[in-house]
Amino acid sequence: MQEVGNELSITQRISLRRPAMPRAMAKIAEVILAHPTAPVELTITELADRAGTSPATVTRFCRAIGFDGYTQFRVGVAAESGRGDAGTTWRTDIADDISQDDPADRVLLTLLGLHTRSMETTTSLLDLDDVQLVARAIAESRHVDIYGVGGSGVIAEEFRGRLYRIGVNAHSWSDVHDGLTSAVLQDGSSVAVGISNTGSTEETIEMLSHARAAGALTVAITARADSWLASIADVAFITSSASPTDRPDDLSIKHAQLLVIDLLYVLVAQRTLGKAATRLAASAMAVSSHRRATPSPLERGPRREKESAR
């Protein structure tokens, strides 16, 4: 929560607290002091990249100067700079290629094109020899660690769930302390996967680095071939966000990542077909009693009539 009664401007508060900040947070302070309106113009990911740090560090920085998070911080900066108009917020956070007044059909077609290009670009960037190498390593592994923070953590958990269902000893980690504890226990029979669209998330880089030092085959899934995450991985799968602004809420980023993990999942299942089929059947039976059968026409209630669009 923003500090009550604090009459200092945001830049003054940053200047006062900068000397006591950790180096990663101080780099964010340097960027903002040099360009005070940067938070209004940049997403949290873009600001993190500009400062050479991670979105999580940006969030900690915001809290250190009295804001709940990046959104509240941006609102404060916008208010002080007189740039808090809805148009700027829309272009930065929602969409630069979709107008606030576009009809639903145009929005749909624009999003379809965006997501399709993301999937097609990711497909063209994948090296299938590398994909098959990783799939084979996962199928033969003793243990698979998957690291991801924030939105990438959701993808990591999805990958873990799929692999676990077909008999792979997989675990996903978003908390860096838990992830590091697991990473240092890996060895040459393990596979470690780090997922980060920007490839600059400090926690994911740190976890994957420790897994590599322990001897695991390391894999990066990222949109940045020149990122830290890609540079420390034995194999890097480069995805495309298909968005020049890398909006945090751009779901085409997630779809590109999902394409990669789905491909790996299917190839691993091919290599463990007997065990995979048995496990999938067992898990389906285990939850079958919690699924309702499709209702008959007599059991279905009457549909509501659609109201005309206003």
Please explain how this structure is put together:
The protein has 310 residues and is of the alpha/beta class. The chain has two domains: 10-94, Orthogonal Bundle (Arc Repressor Mutant, subunit A); 107-284, Glucose-6-phosphate isomerase like protein, domain 1 (Rossmann fold). The chain has helices at 10-17, 23-34, 38-41, 44-51, 55-64, 70-81, 86-94, 104-125, 128-139, 151-165, 176-183, 202-213, 228-232, 251-271, 273-288; strands at residues 143-148, 170-173, 190-195, 217-222, 235-238. The protein has a five-stranded parallel β-sheet, sandwiched between helices. β3, α12 (202-213) and β4 (217-222) form a beta-alpha-beta unit. α10 packs parallel to α14. The longest helix has 22 residues, at 104-125. The radius of gyration is 23 Å and the shape is globular. The protein starts with 9 loop residues before the first helix and ends in a 22-residue tail after the last helix. The relative contact order is 0.11.
